[in-house]
Every structure is written in C-alpha cells, then in structure tokens.
Amino acid sequence: METVIEETSGPVRHWWIVLLEALLFIAAGFIFFFYPFESYTISFLTINIVVSVLLVVIGVLEIAFAFTTRNIFGSWVWGCVLGILTLILGLILIFNPQISELVLPYILAIWILIEGISMIGTSINMKDSKQGGWMWVCLGGILVILLGIIIIFNFELATLTFVYWVGFSFLFAGITDAFVSYKLYKAKKFIKKTTVVEGAQT
Fold first, then answer.
1. Which of 37, 77, 97, 140 could make an SS bond with 43 (beta carbons 3.0 to 4.6 A apart)?
2. Phi, psi angle pair for 129, to nearest 5°
3. Does the keyword Ribonucleoprotein apply (predicted)?
C-alpha cells in the first residue's frame, strides 16, 4: 500500500501544473473571442504572438508533468514527446514571425489534433487507474480533434473564422485540463487522508 501511495503521490502533488496549463488555454481562448481585432492582419499578428508564447509555456509544462508521472502513467513518454513538439513549434513561430497566414492554420490544426489525441490518452490512463470522469476527458479530446479536422478540411471556412476555431479548441482543451487537475487534486487529498490514517494505526 505504501508503495502505491508513493508512486501515485508524484503526479497528484503536481496537479497545479495541469491547472496552470488549463488556465493558459482558457485565457488564450477568451482572448481570441473578445480581443477587439481591427483587421485580419492585426488579428493574425496577435495570434502569432499569443500562440507562440503559449505553446512555449505549455510545452515546458507538459514536459515537466510527463516526468512527474513517469512512475505511474505508461504513456508519460508520449506526453514528453508532445511537450517537446509543442515547445519546438512555439520556438519556430517565435523566431519565424514571417510564417504566412496560409501556413499557420495548418500548423495549429496539426498541433490541435495531437493535443486531442493526448487528451484521449489521458482519459485511458484515468480509466486504467479507476478514476471517475474519464469519459468526459475522452469526449473533450474527441471535440478538440473534430475542431482540428474542421480547420484542415474546411480551410476556406476556417480561414474566415480562424480566430474562433482556435478559440474553441483552446477553450475545450482548457476545460478538459481543468477537470483533470481537479481529479488529481481530489486524489491528492485522498492520499493525504490515507497516509494520516495509516500513520495513526502504526
């Protein structure tokens, strides 16, 4: 029992990493919906700046969380790879601001698809570890994947409403991550309570 608690305490102790990632996603989503863009050119430049910085920060957070879960989640390597890819993509956008308006939607769509797949992987981990609510996380991943597909295969429509599609994707990802962080926080409280009870019994 003590071994299980020790292995599980790492991921749940760092629940705030997932929460911080969720808040960044949600904040970016609201920015894309409510920022008073004056023209598509200005909105594109703003998107490039916001997204590039966001991807760098999220990439670092995903790498950090992957390492904290390496002893309990079998898919931590996938999470680490996703974090590295996200970090690299963010750096590419930062150092190549001249990336055209035609290329950026495809880059983001591919990243959104990968993020959705990662969310489904997280739901599988939750199911395997007997965590409730894994179906909601899986549903969130499916919705994010669908939004990525819409951007890729309905490019003309996506171009006209690009800001909103990205905003929807970030909001769904943020809400899902917030739910995951809440489940980790509850697990942390349970482990703490269990540890106290076992300590009192010894």
1. 37
2. -95, 15
3. no
